[in-house]
Each structure stands twice: as structure tokens, then as C-alpha cells.
Design a protein that fits this description.
Strand order of the largest sheet: 3-2-1-4-5-8
Number of domains: 1
Order of helices and strands: HEHEHEEHHEEEHEH
Shape: globular
Largest sheet: 6 strands, parallel
Structural class: alpha/beta
Number of helices: 7
Number of strands: 8
Distance between the termini: 9 Å
CATH topology: Rossmann fold
CATH class: Alpha Beta
């Protein structure tokens, strides 16, 4: 076992979805060695949910501020053991499904696949009817058929584990953490 493997990190992408946003930030803060990639839309959501200053000091934050998404090069250096895309907007899901890599979030998903990095993906649109917490309170959401179809297509991607609830996301994170602890220690 090399010290290189011991230094691998979590890569986590936040997009413009507010679905379970506060809970997601709490989950990120529980992990150590996280690189958080924040899309332009996610920056707005961080402010709306008043979480901008509440991200742990253990988390390195990368913002979407370059056209080529230069920070995705870390995938080619073997920096990451796991990518988490959560919560993920329907826009990002659609782009990922159709191979469009024109933003930090979609570039990271593409590069993680090319580098065979395991991905845990939590889309916001997982059922025909949902309730979610908006900054002003609980709202009803009715995802479109195309959004639900895109989630089904995403489930067919290799090395991509699509979770359909926040509880499932938490469970997968903790199972992955246990697996990594066995593997790296």
C-alpha cells in the first residue's frame, strides 16, 4: 500500500438543485478530505439556503470559474476514490445522460467516468410527485416525464450508482466510507 492511496479524496459536486440541500451540506461536513466543486447555479443556491459560510474547513472548494474546468485534471492524477453528485438538478442530469460536458459539474462527471472513479449520483427528480424544502418552506414538485426518463437512463451508466432518496444517499456514503476504510487501512 502506498501513501498515494491514503491521500485520495472525495470529489463532491453541488449543482443548482435545492433538494435536501441543507442536509447535503451537513453530510459533506461529516466527511474529511473532500473537494467540493460548486457550479455557478450552486453558488446561488448556497446563498439562498444561507450555507455559504457553513462548510467545514476540511472541505476544499472549487468554483466554476474557468471555461475549460481546469480542476478536472485532478481525476487524471488519481486524486479521487469517489465522486458524489448530490443534489443534482434536472439540467445537469440531462447533460450527463447525453454526454454534454460544458460546465464544471458535467465535465467532472465525464472525467470521472473516463478515469473509472466510482460515482454516487442523487438526482432531484426521482418520482412523479415530490415535496422538497425551498428557502421559504416545503413545496410540491412534479417532475416532467423527460426528467424521470433521464434518471432511468443514468442508472444504466457503468460505475454510477443512482440513489433515489436522501436516506439512500446517506446509506451509500457510509457504506462507501466503511469499504474505503477497509481498503486503505
Amino acid at each position: 500500500m502506498t501513501s498515494e492511496k491514503l491521500k485520495k479524496r472525495w470529489a463532491w459536486v453541488l449543482t443548482g438543485s435545492g433538494h435536501f440541500f441543507n442536509e447535503t451540506i451537513e453530510l459533506i461536513n461529516m466527511l474529511k478530505e473532500v473537494d467540493l466543486f460548486v457550479s455557478k447555479a450552486a453558488e446561488e443556491v448556497l446563498v439562498m439556503y444561507k450555507k455559504k459560510g457553513k462548510i467545514s474547513n476540511f472541505v476544499k472548494i472549487y468554483q466554476d470559474n474557468s471555461a475549460s474546468s481546469a480542476s478536472v485534471g485532478k481525476f487524471y492524477k488519481g486524486t479521487y476514490h469517489t465522486l458524489v453528485m448530490a443534489p443534482t438538478s434536472s439540467n445537469t442530469v440531462a447533460k450527463c445522460v447525453y454526454g454534454i460536458s460544458d460546465s464544471l459539474a458535467t465535465n467532472i462527471f465525464a472525467q470521472s467516468g473516463k478515469c473509472k472513479v466510482e460515482c454516487i449520483f442523487f438526482p432531484c427528480d426521482t418520482a412523479p410527485e415530490l415535496q422538497t424544502m425551498a428557502p421559504s418552506g416545503v413545496v410540491d414538485v412534479f417532475p416532467r416525464d423527460i426528467d424521470l426518463q433521464n434518471v432511468k437512463k443514468l442508472k444504466k451508466f457503468s460505475m454510477t450508482n443512482v440513489v433515489m432518496s436522501f436516506q439512500e444517499l446517506k446509506k451509500e456514503i457510509f457504506e462507501r466510507k466503511k469499504c474505503l476504510k477497509k481498503f486503505y487501512s
